[in-house]
Design a protein that fits this description.
Length: 385
């Protein structure tokens, strides 16, 4: 009499019966899943010209496009959509407080799929890169500007055999699939370029992508920051600077109008034009190249030929611009205009604009290189004649 054993080396009638039972359970209690089959990385060398735009074939789906980062950015998806049945636990949006901070875990799903049905439908097993569309999660009442229902797309990140899918015969019947909600990125361009609905001129990117809103928010934040802080450093132009003597004490200049005569006009002119000979505020990035107390000053690449004591002049041929004060015999440096605008769209006379972001080119050994590269380039040894 043969020994009784639930496990058999071959998949016999018992396995087929259990597999049909599992598939029937998914047919009755599962939900539809639309599968966008991943065909592999796009192959630009095999271009198929069409009437509207070029179409690229795909290489084998197990190939890796970028071996450095181990990713496939230019993905090609099948134009046909396959239908499967899946089951997953619907959970409320909850916070993950197991680590420092607060995290939302509402964009990851774990779904079970019958093995035999998925392989027969797709022609292969489910793999990372496949995109699942869940039609039962469409939002018909979304707060958007389109009269369309927002669909939900998830990409397969991982797949394994589900523990609950093993039958008494020790053979698996279910796949456990980890799904992550897709974002508007290069990988899913082939899906997001599809029409939002049949006959619509709008694409799924127009409806689902948050890129435009995020860019508008970012630009608004930058604009507000530029309005609040137009330049780097500290603003001191609205503060008043008192004239001080050689000892650093406040120097007050007064004139008795009853004693004025023609002989004191020159001395009086110097006293009336008594301007601070130094900036009253020291610190990091306070020099703005503006005369203190709102005094009138000239600017140019050469000093004026006529000036009186206390005049200010801004030399624009200095980098950064330099403010000078005339002390009756010579022009004395006051400060440098080191405060610069912080916007990235402006040409800044700082190291950020001319050194870190240097895009200039140069000729080294007959080869055109950018200046941000090392100039100590090793020369190739010449061959002996």
């Amino acid at each position: 009499m043969p020994r009784i054993s639930l496990y058999k080396p071959e998949k016999g009638q018992d396995y087929a019966f259990l597999d049909r039972t599992v598939n029937e359970m998914f047919t009755v209690g599962g939900t539809d899943v639309f599968v966008h089959k991943y065909l592999g990385p796009r192959n630009p060398e095999e271009e198929e010209a069409t009437a509207t735009q070029p179409r690229y074939n795909a290489v084998k789906e197990t190939n890796i496009q970028d071996m450095l980062f181990l990713e496939n950015r230019d993905r090609k998806y099948d134009s046909s959509v396959y239908t499967l049945r899946g089951i997953y636990n619907v959970a409320d949006i909850d916070f993950d407080m197991s680590q420092f901070g607060l995290f939302l875990q509402n964009d990851t799903l774990f779904m079970t799929i019958p093995i035999s049905t998925s392989v027969e439908t797709l022609g292969r097993k489910i793999m990372p890169g496949d995109v699942f569309e869940l039609p039962h999660l469409k939002d018909e009442y979304a707060l958007n500007d389109f009269n369309l229902a927002l669909k939900r797309y998830y990409v397969v990140e991982d797949i394994s055999r589900a523990a609950e899918g093993f039958s008494v015969s020790w053979y698996p019947h279910l796949y456990r699939v980890k799904l992550k909600q897709i974002v508007d990125s290069q990988e899913f361009k082939g899906i997001l370029d599809l029409p939002a609905q049949e006959g619509s001129s709008q694409t799924l990117r127009d409806v689902l992508s948050t890129y435009e809103k995020e860019m508008q928010i970012n630009e608004a934040v930058v604009a507000q920051a530029e309005a609040d802080t137009t330049k780097s450093g500290y603003e001191t132009s609205h503060l008043y600077t008192l004239q001080t003597d050689a000892k650093g004490n406040t120097e007050l200049v007064t004139t008795d109008t009853n004693e004025l005569d023609a002989s004191t006009q020159n001395e009086l002119a110097d006293r009336v034009n008594q301007t601070p000979d130094r900036s009253g505020y020291q610190g990091y990035l306070v020099g703005d190249g503006i005369a203190p107390n709102g005094e009138v000053f000239g600017h140019g690449i050469t000093f004026p030929t006529s000036a009186i004591k206390g005049d200010y002049f801004l030399r624009t041929d200095f980098l950064p611009n330099r403010l000078f004060r005339f002390d009756k015999t010579r022009w004395v440096k006051m400060e440098d205009g080191v405060r610069m605008t912080l916007t990235n769209t402006d040409t800044r006379a700082t190291q950020k604009g001319t050194f870190i972001n240097n895009t200039a080119t140069n000729q080294i050994g007959g080869e055109t290189v950018t200046e941000r590269q090392s100039l100590s380039k090793a020369l190739k040894p010449k061959a002996d004649n």
